[in-house]
Every structure is written in C-alpha cells, then in structure tokens.
## 1
Amino acid sequence: MAMAAAMRREGKRLAPLMSSQPINNTLRSTLISPLEQTSIGGARSISTQIVRNRMKSVKNIQKITKAMKMVAASKLRAVQTRAENSRGLWQPFTALLGDAIAVDVKKNVVITVSSDKGLCGGINSTSVKISRVLSKLNSGPDKETKYVILGEKAKAQLIRDSKKDIALSLTELQKNPLNYTQVSVLADDILKNVEYDALRIVFNKFQSVVQFIPTVSTVLSPEIVEREAEAGGTLGELDSYEIEGGETKSEVLQNLSEFQFSCVMFNAVLENACSEQGARMSAMDSSSRNAGDMLDRLTLTYNRTRQASITTELIEIISGASALTG
C-alpha cells in the first residue's frame, strides 16, 4: 500500500511534463538537450564570427595599402630626379617665346595628361576639370576645340560628355620607362593627326609628396608665333635675333615650335608621373591609418559582443540551476 501511494504521488508530480500543453521557458531551459545547447551557443556566436571575419578583411586591406605605399615611394624616387632635370629643357623656350596662355586663336587643342591607374587621389579629376574649363573659354561660333588624351583615367571621364571632340587618345605611356625618344615620337604623332593654332598641355606639376600644382603650358603654331611677333610684346623680340644658314624665319619657327612641344610634353609626362606616385603614397598612407582606426573599433565591438554573450550564458546557467533546485 505504501509503495502504491508513492507511485501515485510521483505520477502526479510528472503529469505536467507528460501533458501536451506547452511548457514554460524556465522549465524548457532545464530540459534542453546537449545538442540544442550547442546549437544555441553557435547562434549566439554568429555576431562575433562576423566581426572576426571583418577584422581579418581589414587587416588584409591594411597589408595591401602599406605595400602599395612602399611601391609608390620606390617609383617616386626613380622618376623625381628625371622630372626635375627635364625642367631645363622647356624653360629656355619660355624665356624666348613666352607662355601666351591668353592668346586668342581659332583652333585649340587641349592635351590632358593623366594616369592609367587609379588610387592616386584627385589629380586626374583636377586635370579633367581644367581641360573642360579651357574648352569652354576657347569656344565660340568660329572656333574649334579638340581633346588629345593621354591616360586611361582622363579618357574615361571626358568620353562621357565630349566624345565627339576627342581627336586622339593614347594610353599605357608608363608601361615602359619614360625617355625623350619615346615622348618625341608621341609628340610627332599628335602633330600629324591634329590641326592646331595653339596646343594647351594640362598636367600636374610636382612640388612635394603632398603638393601638386595644376599647370597649363601653351605651345603656339609657327604661324601664330609669327603673327604675335609682328604684333609686338614678348614675342616681338624674335626679330632681334640673327638667322644663320639657309633657313628662312618660317622654317626656324617651325623647328622651334616642334622642338618646344616635344620638350614641354616630356616634362609634362614626367611631372605628372611624379605627382601620380606622390598622390598614391598619400592616399595609401591615409588608407592604412583609416584601416588601423577601423580595426581598433572592430576590436572593441568584438570584445563587447563576446562579453555580452558570456554574460548571457552565465545568466541562463544560473537560472536553470535555480529552477532545478527550486
């Protein structure tokens, strides 16, 4: 009789667990299986796993930006000296013929020097903006302005709204080390493919790693040089020079104009290459520092999320133990 009474009391105690009614959350936490606990733990660790993956990605990006900065610094050292030495080529022409940027002519050709690769700040956008301004300033009913583009980045921007005005486009100039012979052949191709009264070369002049000056150099055709010389001013001093040999004044001006253009182009390409590498150094340095700041924030977020997950699990363990003892 005593055993039967004890079985009846045990049955009454287990009756709620065997019923089809939903059980409360506290009791469910005490009866959960080890597999389900692992599943819940995995679900809670999803947020920390996402943060860990993000931290890994940021670290990889930081390694890449630091490597790109060092590569840009190495290339800058290689080309900076050549760019500074090339300034002595075009300065005598400026002293002799001047740089008549405000000259009014009918046929203008804007030569935009840019880079083939990105990740170098806004130097390409600046050159494109100046080229567009020059095109608008020299536009009119009886005037014509064409573009000659050097570099992929300027081409990608100007082709959107000025495709019909692009006379010539050349890319991959820096695929091989730049030299005067290569640039003089390039200048000769430009002179053969465009008709011009004034060539306006737009490039970035290198000052320092963090300073680049947008510059416009103007090269006039022999006819315009002769016209401006007859009108007086700076170019009027050409008549004070004596011409030796059998060449006429027109032939001398033709040779001077072509040689001036090749020298200015050589300097412009080197100066822009220096500016590109300097801008890339600055951009990659800023990217590396930003990646470090982001990594610090992600580390703080990861630690907070992990601590919150541990605290939640401890609370649930204590609640389950209290429910079992109660």
## 2
Amino acid sequence: MSASRWNGFSTTGLRVKCVCFRGTAFVLSGVYAVLIYLGRVFMKHRQKLDLRRPLMLWSLSLAIFSVMGAMRTGWYMFSVLNTHGFRQSVCDTAFYSAPVSKFWACAFALSKAPELGDTLFIVLRKQRLIFLHWYHHITVLLYSWYSYKDHVAGGGWFMTINYTVHAFMYSYYSARAAGVRVPKPFAMLITAMQIAQMLAGLSVLGLVYRWKHHTHCVSTMNNIVCGSAMYLSYLLLFSAFFYKSYLKPTDETRAKRE
C-alpha cells in the first residue's frame, strides 16, 4: 500500500480538499458571526431549549475525535523528538505529508469549522456568550486553515497540543452534559492547560522566528506575527477568565471575611 493510501482513504485527495477552500475561512467566519446575532435575537423572547442529550453526544464525539488525534499526532511528534531532537520537532514540516499524520493534520484543520457548532448550544440554551468564546473560534479557524495551506514549521506542536487539551475539555463537557458532578479543580485544570497551551504556542513561534533562516525551518513573517498576536491575546483572555472564575473573591466571600 502506498504512503498516500491507507485504511481505505486517499490522503492525497484529502489534502487537496483541505487546500482548496482556504479562502472560504473568512466567509465562514462572517456567516458564523451573523448567525450568532440572529440566533440571539430569535431566542430573546423564547424559552431556552433543553439540549442536554444532544450536547452530550456532540461533546462526546469531539472528545473521541480529539483523543484519537492526540494519540496519532503525539506518536509522530514523539518519534521526531526521539530520533531527530527538539529543534527538528519545531522545524518539521513533514508532519503535513507523512503517512497517518497527514490525515490528522487535515482533520485538525477541517474540524475547526464544525467546532463552531459549540456556540449553537450556548445560544439555544440562552447561556452567557462571552467574547473569549466566539473570538477564539473565529481566529482559530482562520489561523489553522492558513497555516495548513502554508505548511508552516511548528504545526506539529500546535496541533498535537490542541488535540490533547481538547481531549480533556470535551470530555469535561460530556460529563457535565450527562449530569455528572465534576469537581471544580478539574475545570481549573482545563483552563490552566489552555493557558499553558498559549505559552507553548508563543514559545514555538519564537523558536520558529529564531530558526527561520535555517533551511528546514520554513515559515512566513505574516504567520509568525499573526500567530504571536493570536496566542498573546488568548493568553491574556484565558488568564483573565481564570482569575474571574476561580480566584476573584465573590460578594459572599467578601462578606465572610468582613
């Protein structure tokens, strides 16, 4: 069996599909923003919907997908680290074309479109929609699709870490939707992992910039600048969310202290 075909899938065909619609990322983002607005207007004077079971199935499917992606891409990154060292793992671009990992790189880019569906549950259940949520979804979609098209260095780290964090995050969402009482420290751990992910992303981009002129560390200044701005904004927003959600004293806490 050739490297471009495995498990009955033509990964070459998948790569073509991933590349061809890069320009639609902005269109999808615009449609997403409009649908959020219209959805909130539609639900304004209506009762919130009980979507616990669909939400559980949705989150569980994304959790399983993320676990599989983390395992497959993680094994690839471990192999590169073990055989070629850390620098090559950062500058590696074979991740996008190697057997198995090429499928999961493509699947990662594609998955950022259906993940926009997370917001649908928030709108229809009339939950609080924070800026961090929709801003994160839009910018991840744009950056992921453009980075995939350019096959930039560092992509293996970005995708593997994101798959891993999402494996925990969507598993947590699945449990919550199923009515399981998840201890608060687990929620704190997930947010802490997201903060660590942003620090890792900034670090990888910094190393790509440092090694950019190396023959095998391919990227563009646009990607490095946009990626750094994105990860820095995430770092600030997730840190603020962590403080407000878990550290900031509540009125009840202040009353007890007084």
## 3
Amino acid sequence: MDRGILKCQCTFSYEVVTVEVENGCNQELPTPNNNYVSNIKQNGHSIEPMNQIPGYLSIYAIFQIIGIFLILSVFLWLQIYRTGFGFSGTIHICNWHPLLMTITFIYLFANSILHFRNFRNTTKRKLKMQHATIHSCIVIFGVLGIWTGLNSNLIANPPIPKFYSLHSWLGIITVIIFLSQFTSGFISFVYPEIGIRYKKVMMPYHIIFGILTFVLSIITSVLGFSEKIIFALNHQYEHMPTEGLFLNFVGIVLIIYGILVVYILIKPEYKRSSKPNDGVTNNRT
C-alpha cells in the first residue's frame, strides 16, 4: 500500500472507524454521528441516556398518560354521577376516599417505586430522599383518604358497618405493609449509622414487598370500585347503565396500569445501573 494512503473500515454496530496508518498500526476513532453509546461520562461519572434504553421513553409516556387518565376518570365519575365532593353529608365526604386513594396508593405509589428508573442519573442518596418524600406524601394524604371513608360510615343514618368487606380487609393489610415498608426503609437506607451488611440483606426484601404492596393496592382499588358501584346502583347495575360500564372500563385500565408498572420494574434492561458514588446497591436497582 502506498505511503500516505489511509485505509478505513467501518463497523456499523458501534460506528467506530478503524484507521490503518503508515506504520501498520490500527487506531479506532469515534465518528461524530455515534448513535449507540453504552456509557457517557459526565463530571467523571457514567450516565445512561434515556433515549438509548430501547423502548423506555415510550413505555414511560404510556405509564404517565394512563396514570393521569385514571385520576381524571375517578374525579369525573364522582363529580358527574356521585354528586361531587364536600365536607358535609355522607356521600360528599365518602367521595373523597376513592379519589385520594387513587392519587396516593396508585399514582404516587407507582411513581415512587419507579423513581430510581426514571431518574437513573441522579445520585443514589438524592433518589432515596426523594423516594422517602413521595412516600411521606402518600402517608399524609392516604390517612386523609382513609379518614373520609371511615367518617362517612359513622355519620350515615343508619351508620354503616366497618371492616366487614374484602375490600376493607385488603385495605388494612395493604396499609400495614406499606407503613412497615416505609418505616424499615427509612431506617435502613436513609439513616447513615445502619451497617452496610444489614442494608444489603434488607434490599431484596424491600424491593419484593414494595412490588407486593403495589399489587395489593391495585386489587384493593378494583374491589373498592366494584363495591361502591354495586351499593350505588343496586339492582340497576345488572341492566348495564352507563355509569356501571364506565367504572368497569376504569377497573380494566387500572389492572393494565398495574401490569405495566410491574413489567417496568422486573424488566432487566430498564433497571438503573450502579454508579461509583451509590454506596450500597444491588448492581442494578
């Protein structure tokens, strides 16, 4: 080969140009249009570009759209068909319960457990604090939602019995597990004095019970919707009125939403890679 002539070979999987120089040595130079990058360095740490995780941006957009749709659907159902909201009267107070529980134990809960995937380039400590903050909001507004449900039963004439349905039983179990998760997670992963070995042991159980609690929230909500619409419509429900069909559709969307969240959680490609400054991780979380 003549001196001064460069021989270029392109490899399309990474679009790296191999250059054979005069002395026969090969050098690899990145092209300006590098379409696939497994790791990019920023301030000395590797980052994961969201648009290069196959399908994640699309599925995340669908997740958010369905979540907002569920909240709006429950609000419109209660506002149009169930006389709306208020702080006096059994029905008006009771209507806050399904709306607040949908916002907290469905939408906020889903966002909190996906927070580490959605903001994968934020430091682990910041993510933990944000995760705990979202859970704190769930506790505050969740307690308000539970109170409205119980209070509406007490002021009803005659008073409505409490804690007899499967919906209420599962609701109690879900809240107990959630509070246990919140307390143990806050102590284990936020408080710095806890031993690293203990944190490593707790991590898999925290993840598993987090997913379990979310699944129970979905099941409890579906049962709650069915219970409320049966009591509200009574024998009219069997004639498939518009309200009944609408809420059945909302229940199906709620189940799809739960499946989508669990799918994002368990899909290995969507998990957040460990960063050098993460501290205790499970390689991918």
